[in-house]
Amino acid sequence: xxxxxxxxxxxxxxxxxxxxxxxxxxxxxxxxxxxxxxxxxxxxxxxxxxxxxxxxxxxxxxxxxxxxxxxxxxxxxxxxxxxxxxxxxxxxxxxxxxxxxxxxxxxxxxxxxxxxxxxxxxxxxxxxxxxxxxxxxxxxxxxxxxxxxxxxxxxxxxxxxxxxxxxxxxxxxxxxxxxxxxxxxxxxxxxxxxxxxxxxxx
Length: 202
Prior knowledge:
By secondary structure, the protein is mainly α. 24% of the residues lie in helices and 0% in strands. The chain is extended, with a radius of gyration of 25 Å.
């Protein structure tokens, strides 16, 4: 995309070249001053295109070849449209993790609970139903638990008891992949929320 913009006469600041030239002639610095693309940048972009082309033509993405990805953690190649190969861990094979049109894997047997009665009719509603409206006065409970990264170890006053799931994720940062991990980090000093740093892992 960047290469196409440059070839079409658009400057690095993404403004028409004539407008940028007029600003320079008037004595003003061009918009986007400090942003520059070198020949090495072009080479890097071109290499990523070659990797993607070979992969799209049926070649293997992982490998030691010139247009392959040697290390699953290297930023190499281009994203696929359907999201496949976002995760390149080969064992276990995770190349479809995060891809489009995939069912979320279940870890437990689903348990669809009853919800609250319809306030207009008084009839019961439930998450088991396939049609109609479900009434739930606290639909964000799960989402709030997911984003709550509060420590359970001496949480600051006023933030509650903390989130045990966040504490467990923090205390075991290597997860199952074991690629990107490190020692657990304590909450940021002075953070009134007591939030834990939980790194992304592969």
